[in-house]
Every structure is written in structure tokens, then in C-alpha cells.
Amino acid sequence: MDTASGTGRLHLLPELIEHQRVRTTPVKTEASASAQRLTFDDGTSLFAKFAENERPSYLAAEANGLRWLREATDSVVDVLYADDRLLVEPWIEPAEPNAAHAAELGRQIALMHGAGAERFGAPWRGYIGETFMDNDPAGATWAEWYAAKRIEPYLRPSRDNGALDAADVAAVEALTARLSTLAGSDETPARTHGDLWWGNVHWGTERAWMIDPAAHGGHRETDLANLRLWGGVPHFDAILAGYTEVSPLADGWEERVGLHQLFPLLIHTTLFGRTYRAQLMGIVSHFTKVSY
Predict the structure, then answer these.
(1) Which of 273, 275, 283 is nearest to 225 (CA)?
(2) What is the average pLDDT across 176-193?
(3) What are the phi and psi torsion angles at 28 (to 5°)?
(4) How far apart are CA 224 and CA 102, in angstroms?
(5) Phi first, then psi: what are they for 22, rounded to 5°?
(6) Which stretch of DSSP H or E encloses residue 109?
(7) For the stretch 13-51, what's the b/e string if a residue is b when 16 or more beta carbons lie within 10 angstroms of its beta carbon?
(8) DSSP E strand stretches across the chain
(9) 78 exposed, middle or buried (CB, 10 Å; 0-12, 13-18, 19+)?
């Protein structure tokens, strides 16, 4: 299917897939969704994600986020079709990362952030990975909202599954109480990807693409902090250079990286248990000067 001429027929995809009129090749499978490469008789391909659970808003949230981010930058992958069970995007052949594409990605992230948001959070229910993400308003500042919607909701699940013990939870709560003094000067809500670790940067032949967002109005330092998690994205220095060409960062941003990484690490303690405790509590120790 030539997407330039076949966009109007994309609503037929669920029927074509069901009746095996298009070749499907598995790409990856998660608890919440499975991904397939769809190949048509003319040799063209699309990328499709199928919901694998009873949360129909899961793919809707991703589609909403992609469209919202793409209003600000075409470095976010396009949504060709979306319904409660299916999300279709262009198929982008992977390529090796390079510094030029990284620098342009940094510029595009800055433009995306600069497009802003009406408030912290989003008007749709959020998901990240295999779990919930509360996008409702809370407080007057990013620090208040982050504490209420990105840290506190994941402490009890992490305690209940044994990832954190009572002392760990108390230490995180104590750090959270200091966020207003640690978070730097107030910033207006940025239009953030929300889950921008290196696995959600897809390197293509023409550019680097942002995929799989948990989009919301947030703090612009969060996306940059996430790019440094788990080994870090290739060519981070080039991304940062491109970003600061467009939008210089506030003084002290490097010292705040760990604060922004608390959320993704709490998602991992919630989903995967104690494996991620040491990394999480290492950040807490850095700010509290107490070993855990």
C-alpha cells in the first residue's frame, strides 16, 4: 500500500489483517501491546502496534501524544491510523546513529519543548510502559505536580512488591518534600515526550525519530535526563549541543538530572521489582547524603 495514495484506505487495515490480506512480521511483544511489520503486495511496509490487554485507552493515549508532539516537530513519528486496538505508523528502516542526526534531534527536542503546554499533565489518561500515569493537575508548580503525580503514586506499589522497604519509602518521601528547593527556578510547562530514554529514539537513514511517548506538559529537563539513563543515548553531547543552540538550559541543570530520573526508576521498581532499587536509592543518597 503506497501510503501517499492509500491513506484514505487505512481504515480498512483491521479487516485486511484479520483476513490475512497483508503479510505480518513480529517486531516485538510486550504485555500491553505487540508490534508487527505490515508488508503489502507492492512491497511497501507499515509499522503496527496491537493492544494486548483490556485497556483500550492505552493506544489512544500514545496516539494522542504523538499527534500533540508532532504539532511542534516532524521528528516525532507520524500516526497514520489509530483506534482502540490498533496504532499504525510509517515503517522506518533503522540506521546507525550519527552526530549530525543527533544534533538535529537536539534542536527538534528544544522546539518541541518550546511549543509548551496548557498545564502540567495532559487532558488524556496516561500510560507509561505497562502501568498507569496520572495526568491530572496538582499544585501550582512543577515540583508540587511532580511529587503528587510522578513520585507518590508509585511508592506503595513498589513497597507492596518488595522493591522498596519502609525506610526506602520514607527516604524518597523526605527527598520529595525538598523538591521545591532543589528543582531550580520555576519554568512554564514544556511539551515533553515523557519517556525519552535511548530505546525510544529510532535512528533512521534521514534523521533520528522520537517514538513511543508518554507525552504531557512537564519540565524540559526531564527528557534530557532520561536520555542519559541505562547507558545513555548515542551522541548525547551532540544532542545537547543542538538543544542549547535553540534553548539554553538553566544554571545547575546537570545537578538536577537525578531528580528527573526518580520517576522512570520508580516505574521500574513498580513493574520489575527490587532490581532497580540500588539505582533509585543511589540518587536519593546523592541528594540526602545518607547511604541506603
Answers:
(1) 283
(2) 96
(3) -160, 160
(4) 13
(5) -140, 140
(6) helix 99-114
(7) bbeebeeeebeeeeeeeeebbbbbebbbeeeebbbbbbb
(8) 23-29, 33-39, 45-51, 81-82, 86-90, 126-128, 131-133, 190-192, 201-203, 208-210, 216-218
(9) middle
**Of 224, 236, 208, residue with least CA distance to 264:** 224
Residue 157 cell numbers, joined: 506499589
Q: Please, are residues 79 and 66 in contact by the beta-carbon 8 Å criterion?
A: yes
Q: What pTM value is reported for the model?
A: 0.92
Contacting residues for 1 by C-beta, under 8 A, at least 6 apart: 9, 10, 22, 40, 42, 44, 46
Q: Please work out, in degrees rounded to the nearest 5, the angle formed at the alpha carbon of residue 214 by the alpha carbons of 277 and 275.
A: 15
Helix, strand, coil percentages (3-state) for the chain, rounded to 5, are: 45, 15, 35
Average pLDDT over residues 174-200: 96
pLDDT at 113 over 90: yes
> Could you give all domains of the chain from N- to C-terminal order, each with its CATH number?
3-90 (3.30.200.20), 99-288 (3.90.1200.10)
* Distance (Å, whole) CA 33 – CA 60: 12
Residue 87 in contact with residue 59, Cβ under 8 Å? yes
- The residue whose grid cell reads 493537575 is 137
Distances (CA, A) of 208 to 104, 113, 217: 8, 17, 22
Within 8 A by CB and 6+ apart from 263, the residues are: 146, 150, 151, 154, 222
> Averaged over 199-213, what is the pLDDT?
97
Give the rounded percent of residues in the chain with a pLDDT score beyond 70.
Answer: 91
Give the number of residues written for the chain: 292
